[in-house]
Specification:
Bound molecules: flavin-adenine dinucleotide
Helix content: 10-25%
Number of strands: 9
Largest sheet: 5 strands, parallel
Number of helices: 6
Oligomer: single chain
Radius of gyration: 20 Å
Strand content: 15-25%
Structural class: alpha/beta
Strand order of the largest sheet: 6-5-7-8-9
């Protein structure tokens, strides 16, 4: 929608902004590029500017705002897109909004083992996610697939369980503030991107971690 709005308004556009614009010298917006591997600083010179944000790039802070809200009465024309189905996910923490995400890969061996991941997610009040092969194999629903070709997230904490850390997976999660990796292979590439790592068998480590989280939270 942002490019269409920008085109109609003859406005400069920056998508995927990750910081507030720097107005000290012109109007410069920082955005993430190359699947989160680098930043670009883009200067917008048009009078009207359109910026779209990456989800979770900013924390919500309450300020003494002075913005005026003006009601706008518009009647939207019926679009050319036809909605054929609406699938609502209820009772779970939405992935893009979640502060904590617990994610599983092929190291979990099969869908029947997801309970150990879900128990940890429940204890942490976290959303659940997965790697692409897991969704492709229908172990988990596709809306949980994170990465270059899936959902891109930036939670405060990302816990990766039995995920190798392929570049395409990292592209969707490397903006997480803290990354914890649990993998039995000490050479797994994910450890290079991790803030904390546990080398061990997920079937041994994850239940113990869940117990410790519960003890810590007193539940
Ligand atoms: C064009 C393209 C786009 C892609 N897009 C995505 C994407 O968006 N998202 C994505 O995730 N992938 C994507 N991929 C696939 C990606 O390259 C990897 O193949 C995928 O991420 C690997 O998934 P995985 O880590 O679950 O499985 P694996 O690579 O099989 O890794 C499993 C890991 O589990 C560990 N393990 C095994 N057993 C245990 C155990 N008992 N305890 C602890 N650890 C254990 C292993 O050491 C290993 O590191 C894409 C690939 C291509 C080519």
């Amino acid at each position: 929608m942002a490019p269409r709005v920008a085109a109609r308004l003859k406005a400069g556009l920056v998508t995927g902004a990750v910081a507030l614009p720097d107005t000290s010298n012109g109007f410069v917006v920082r955005k993430s590029v190359f699947s989160g591997k680098a930043f670009a600083y883009v200067s917008i010179t048009s009078a009207v500017k359109v910026i779209s944000l990456n989800p979770n790039s900013f924390h919500i802070t309450q300020t003494e705002g002075t913005a005026k809200v003006t009601p706008l009465n518009v009647t939207a024309e019926e679009g050319k897109i036809k909605i054929t189905a609406i699938n609502k996910v209820s009772g779970e923490v939405p992935l893009t909004e979640a502060e904590i995400v617990v994610s599983g890969g092929r190291g979990l061996k099969g869908p029947e083992n997801w309970t150990i991941l879900e128990n940890l997610a429940h204890a942490l009040h976290a959303a659940t996610a997965c790697s692409r092969p897991v969704a492709d194999a229908h172990w988990r629903p596709h809306h949980e697939h994170v990465g270059q070709t899936g959902i891109q997230i930036a939670p405060d904490l990302y816990v990766a369980i039995g995920i190798s850390g392929a570049i395409q997976h990292l592209a969707g999660v490397n903006r997480s503030k803290v990354i914890v990796v649990i993998n039995k292979d000490a050479e797994a590439p994910f450890f290079k991107a991790a803030d904390y790592g546990i080398v061990g068998d997920v079937f041994d480590v994850v239940p113990k971690l869940t117990e410790e989280v519960k003890k810590f939270k007193g539940v």
